[in-house]
């Protein structure tokens, strides 16, 4: 993926031609949206944030929005899918106008940069609205911008984030707006951020038209969860089973007490065991063990935690017990799996 020649007229860079057209309110000046790419950023989150802006420009026939792409050094950045993206320049010394988003991706602990965190903090202090896509919240956390704020990041990164920043509590919403802080879980949810900017600056009609151009059939609210509900995931609406699974998944790092789980759900031990076997084909203990290993796999993939620390975070009494269970489930030791990164 390459950028067009910098010498080209602005209109040819930001405004593409199309059949559809819409007259809508135009801001006095183009709205600037800046993106900072970090190594292994997720392409879907990045492009989903830009395409609605491009669609709005195409519909209006003018550059309602302009965007610039930065990296720490000014060199192109390789995304998590292996595609290298060229950028406009290195992080500028002076604060760029408009919104500033850091685009995160996989292995955020390995790509979190103190220099970028300092730069993002400086933009905030200069009055800019800053934000993050996907796991970019790691950078904002390092910058000290998330304390006392409502924020989110991709669900896959939340367990590791909570281990790295135990004093911060992300929500599992698709996106969050908190004053001058905008955070997004990434993926196609990034389009929601772009559509919000279009609505705010160009009106709801243009926002709806941009949605149609991107073939988006409905808008998510900020409160919508990132993933499907537990009931949908389990394939049942049985309230007792759903409550039990939620209890298990929120107490992964604690010693499991089936009687306590049953009491929480308001059912007997025999009934809760029957529900798991009937709907899931496994026992509550087996479900809990699988959930622990899923979390462990994520932590080994996305963080720098030691095998011992991962074992503790997932409720295992010893690293040897954890290693044995992990190898049985995935066919590889935790140490070897962690080294695959």
Automatic annotation (TrEMBL):
What name goes with this protein?
A: GlxA family transcriptional regulator
InterPro entries registered for this protein in UniProt: Class_I_gatase-like, DJ-1/PfpI, Homeodomain-like_sf, HTH_AraC, HTH_AraC-typ_CS, INH-QAR, Tscrpt_reg_AraC-type_HTH
Q: Which GO terms describe its molecular function?
A: DNA-binding transcription factor activity; sequence-specific DNA binding
User: Where on the tree of life does the source sit, at the highest rank?
Assistant: Bacteria
Work out whether the entry's keyword set contains Ribonucleoprotein.
no
Q: Where is the HTH araC/xylS-type domain?
A: 242-340
- DNA-binding as a keyword of this entry, yes or no, is yes
Task: Identify the Pfam families for this entry.
Answer: DJ-1_PfpI, HTH_18
Which UniProt keywords are present, listed alphabetically? Answer: DNA-binding, Transcription, Transcription regulation
